[in-house]
Specification:
Blueprint lengths: L1 H24 L13 E6 L4 H13 L3 E6 L13 H13 L2
Parallel strand pairs: 1-2
């Protein structure tokens, strides 16, 4: 039981941190229109909707963005409880592109 309570507290703290960052960066997507680097915007189909909204907004303003949704993965896709192999392959593909 104690491990569950600790895990829940950690998840709640992470969600609070995410929401704080989102509030601080709200309405700043236009600030990135001059970025010239190639950018890979990865999201998971099981991630909270606010991640997808943010990635869509960035994809709309970043001139060299590639937006990819990894089916069946959530916010922890790169971690062992997600599918790090799928995430790694997406990264390899992106960095192999010229």
């Amino acid at each position: 039981m104690r491990l569950t309570a600790i895990g829940s507290a950690s998840t709640l703290r992470d969600a609070f941190s995410d929401m704080q960052i989102i509030r601080e960066l709200a309405d700043t997507a236009q600030d990135y229109t001059e970025l010239r680097a190639r950018v890979l915007l990865l999201g998971g189909s099981k991630s909270p909707a606010y991640f997808s909204v943010a990635l869509d907004k960035l994809a709309a303003v970043l001139p060299h963005a590639r937006r990819m949704t990894l089916t069946g993965l959530g916010h922890s896709g790169p971690e062992n409880d997600g599918d790090p192999v799928v995430v790694a392959q997406a990264l390899r593909d992106f960095f192999d592109e010229q």
